[in-house]
Structure formats: C-alpha cells, structure tokens
From TrEMBL:
Domain Amine oxidase as annotated: residue spans: 31-458
Source organism per UniProt: Actinomycetospora cinnamomea
A Pfam family hit: Amino_oxidase
Cofactor requirements of the protein: FAD
GO terms, molecular function: oxidoreductase activity
Gene3D superfamilies for the chain: FAD/NAD(P)-binding domain (3.50.50.60)
InterPro entries attached to this UniProt entry: Amino_oxidase (IPR002937), FAD/NAD-bd_sf (IPR036188), Flavin_amine_oxidase (IPR001613), SQase_HpnE (IPR017830), Zeta_carotene_desat/Oxidored (IPR050464)
Domain of life, source organism: Bacteria
NCBIfam families: HpnE
Alphabetical UniProt keywords: Oxidoreductase
Protein name as it appears in the record: Squalene-associated FAD-dependent desaturase
Length: 469
C-alpha cells in the first residue's frame, strides 16, 4: 500500500456536499491550470480542476456578444513558444491556429508607404539582416548601429539579478539606440510582448524575448494566432481533452480558502460549500487571489509579491467595417496610436457579408483605461483611416471596446525577485500562473510552462510520499 491509497478519495465534506475523490486539486482553469491538470492526469493522478467562471481559458478566452464571438483580447504566440504549442497539440487543435512560415510584419505609417519586416531563409542572426537594411523607418545611422546592440543583447544573461534590475530603455540608450530606433523597432516589438515600453521594462525580460525570438533560431519569431475564437481552443477543446483524460472539471466553483493541510473550501453558484482534500494542490489562480486564499505564511508573502508585481492593462478596440480595409492578416503601426491591428473576421461568427472585423490591440494601455468606449471607437476609426486608404470610404457597422486592467504583471526592473517558484514550503502545494517565476513575461507560453512546472513538483511530492510509505 502506498500513501496515495490512503489519501485518494478522502472527502471532508460539509453536509449536503458531494463526495469528491481527488488526489490533485488544480485551482484555476486558465492556461496554467489546464496545463497542470493535463500533466497531472497524464502522470496517472486523479485530478479535479476548479474554476470560478462558467468557462475555461481564463484571460485567453472568448465570450458571446449578440450572435458574435469575441475574444477577451487579441492573442498571438511565436514559433519559439514550444510549451504553448505543445498544449495546442495535446488539445488536438494545432490545426486551428495559423503560424507564419516566416516572420512577416507589415508596418503601417500615416502618409508613407507601409514598411515591411520579413525574415530571409538564412540562419540567425543573418535572417533579419536584409529586412533591417531595407527598413526605412530607421535612418542609416540607426540601421548600422543595430548589429552591435543585437550582439550585446545576445551576450546578456537574463538570470543575472543585475540584468533584471536594469531598465531596457536605459540599456538601449547606452548601446547607441536613439529614440527613433526605440520607437520604430524595439518598442514596436517589445511593447506588445512585454506589455510595457522599453523604459518601464526589466532588461532581463526584454533580453529573454529578443534573444529567444529574434537572435536564436531563425524561425523562432514567426508569428502565430488562433484562426478560430480563443474559446474554441482553450475552452471547448480543453474541456474535451480534460474529460478524455479523466479530469473532473468543476466550473462556476469559487475557491474560498486553502488550508495548510490541503483542504480546499469551495463554493458553487448556489453558494453551497464543499471541502476538497487531496494529496496535492496546484494553485493556478491570479496572484492577488492566490494571496487571499492560501494559508499563512505563504498567503501574506504572496500578497506582498502581488502588490510589488502590480498589474499592466491591455485594451482592445473592436471595429466592424462594411468592407475589407486591411489587406493583410495583421499589421503594426508606427507614428500612430494604433499599435497592432488584426483581421479577426474568420473568428467573428456573425459578420455581415463582405464586412471585415478588425481588432486594434493596445498594450501598456494605462492611458486608455479611463477613456469611454465611444471616444475610443471614434479615435481608432480615425487613426485607421489615416493608415488605410480603404477605411476612408468605408462605413463602420459596429464598434466596441474590451479592457483588461490586470492583463499581466508589470514587467518592471527588479521583477524577478518578486515572482515565486512553483515549489512552496508547504508540502504538496505548488504554485502556477504566468506571474510565477518562469523567466518569461506574462504570456500564454509562461502560463503553460508554469503549469507544467507545478505538475512536476506535485508528482515529485507524490513520488516521495510513495517512497516514504
Ligand atoms: C487582452 C489580453 C491580451 C493578451 N495578449 C497576449 C498575447 O498576445 N500573447 C500571449 O502569450 N499572452 C497574452 N496575454 C497574456 C495571457 O493571456 C496570460 O498571461 C495567460 O492567459 C495567463 O494564464 P494563467 O492561467 O496564468 O492566468 P489566468 O488566465 O488569469 O487564469 C486564472 C484562472 O483562475 C480563475 N479564478 C480566479 N479566482 C478564482 C477563484 N477564487 N476560484 C476559482 N477560480 C478562480 C480565473 O477565472 C481564471 O480562469 C494577454 C492577456 C490579455 C488580458
């Protein structure tokens, strides 16, 4: 007999509760929780996943707006996001995303021809040489200063605390990158990836992104996006995969408290309480929620981390035009408020014939949070008309705004020390979430990696329990 046998199926219930046989309880059904639950189930554990909402996918999901399906916000990934792409494979939906066969970004500018950043089929770092030489938003001086900065970036160690303590913007200035280069290149790519401008970003996180994405493997930064609503991947397909793996999914169930003995108190929509008890708990909740439900001394410590990490917003402006106005799947914007714009027509689900559904994605969007939806829609209608000749004649059929004030933590200098690792001092309790110490900024890739790391901690805990028995 093993320890496992004694714990599996243990139910500590309040009257009226349903007995729940679990050995691992995963708290939170975002990408971190999904990844953890699948890994634990694949490792042979009996898993229950608890999620407050009526759907899975967390920050990367979809909701209904009338007949249309709307994503919580535009999401992209890169070819180097191997853990996230592995999750898509595991969910059986790798065919429902589009991945460029080579990095190709159109850069729209008002009153100027679009520029283009397209990689060559050469090994890194030569794959971008020709594209950058031809990239006319940069002066020749700026273009010629790039290789030295890129080489210095490549030599940085993102695990070094001194590197993390430094601002990316400062470092760029020290390496000959003027304001035009920061705006037209480093922030163009860095702001959506880090959810911060270079001046507000940790050099370590920026170095991770640029080294992995642009300076390692030639194909690493090829861009991918969902060809369907995010909910089709992270909710519908995820539920199916979890069910097939034997995971019990409890939606509409809120975690209220976690005891040091791994008793998890939850409440359903009817407010009825259950207490679940398991061999192990993976907490994949947002930082501030984890801090409020986990026991002392962990909870209060996490509260301090969550406060120090802070939150950075993302705002999306959704515009439905009566005709196609954007001739490419997506584009970046320069010298305009439009940071990136995506054609999401294929995912809308109820688009009038001939119409086009565009989403303008605004990262580090603090300034846009207090602005009303009508004003934002008009502002970005006008901005797109400055960038896209077709939009000047086109009629706007619908416009609305989605806002996520806590889209990511603030990837500020000194952030690394505030991100806890998966293993905690409490036996059998592991942490996951894009905000934990993954080395990545808060991304889908970071979330999946964190879930897998927490699953490994939990399995290790159980292995040790078995040996002890
Ligand atoms: C608008 C927007 C755009 C983004 N764009 C990109 C992008 O382009 N590329 C990229 O890689 N990343 C992007 N991100 C970031 C990415 O979505 C997140 O990093 C990732 O989804 C976080 O996953 P997670 O599982 O760590 O957290 P979450 O998704 O926050 O999951 C936590 C889960 O816990 C649940 N929960 C909360 N409280 C409780 C409770 N008390 N009981 C039970 N359950 C609870 C929540 O409902 C949620 O489902 C974007 C985020 C936003 C908001």
């Amino acid at each position: 007999m093993t320890f496992v046998g004694t714990f599996v199926g243990t139910f500590v219930g309040t009257p009226g509760g349903t007995p729940v046989g679990t050995s691992v309880v995963v708290l939170g059904g975002g990408l971190a929780g999904l990844a953890a639950a699948l890994r634990c189930a694949d490792a042979g554990h009996e898993v229950t996943l608890v999620e407050r909402r009526a759907r899975l996918g967390g920050l990367a999901g979809s909701f209904r707006r009338g007949d249309a399906t709307v994503d919580t916000g535009q999401h992209v990934f890169l070819r180097c996001c191997t853990a996230y792409r592995g999750l898509l494979d595991r969910l059986g939906v790798a065919g429902s995303v589009t991945l460029q066969d080579r990095l190709d970004v159109t850069v729209l500018r008002p009153d100027a021809r679009p520029a283009r950043l397209r990689r060559d089929r050469l090994p890194a770092p030569w794959h971008l040489g020709r594209a950058l030489l031809r990239y006319d938003p940069l002066s020749w001086r700026d273009r010629l200063a790039l290789p030295r900065a890129a080489a210095a970036l490549r030599r940085l160690d993102p695990a070094d605390v001194a590197v993390d303590a430094r601002s990316f913007g400062d470092w760029l200035r020290d390496h000959g990158q003027g304001p035009a280069a920061v705006r037209a290149l480093w922030d163009l790519i860095g702001t959506p990836t880090l959810n911060a401008r270079a001046d507000d970003a940790s050099l370590a996180l920026a170095a991770t992104v640029f080294r992995l994405g642009l300076l390692s493997d030639a194909g690493a930064a090829d861009i991918g996006w969902a060809a369907v609503p995010l909910g089709a991947l992270h909710d519908t397909a995820a539920r199916r995969a979890l069910e097939d793996a034997g995971v019990r999914v409890r939606l509409g169930t809120t975690v209220l408290d976690v005891g040091a003995d791994r008793r998890v108190t939850v409440a359903g929509r009817d407010r009825r309480r259950d207490v679940l008890h398991a061999d192990a708990v993976v907490c994949a909740l947002p930082a501030e929620v984890a801090a409020s439900v986990l026991p002392a001394p962990l909870g209060p410590r996490l509260a301090a981390s969550a406060d120090a990490l802070g939150a950075s917003p993302i705002v999306d402006v959704h515009l439905v035009w009566d005709r196609p106005v954007l001739p490419v799947p997506f584009a970046a914007g320069l010298d305009t408020e439009v940071q990136w714009v995506f054609d999401r027509s294929a995912a809308h689900g109820a688009l009038p014939e001939g119409a086009q559904y565009l989403v303008v994605s605004l990262s580090a969007a603090d300034a846009y949070l207090p602005v009303g939806a009508t004003a934002l829609v008009e502002r970005f209608r006008a901005e797109l008309a400055r960038l896209l000749p077709g939009a000047r004649e086109a009629r706007l059929l619908d416009g609305f705004v989605t806002r996520e004030p806590r889209a990511t933590f603030r990837p500020a200098p000194g952030t690394a020390a505030r991100r806890p690792v998966a293993r905690t001092a409490l036996p059998g309790l592991a942490l996951a979430g894009a905000w934990t110490d993954t080395g990545w900024p808060a991304t889908m890739e970071g979330a999946v990696r964190s879930g897998e790391a927490a699953a490994a901690v939990v399995s290790h805990h159980r292995d040790r329990a078995e040996v002890a028995a």
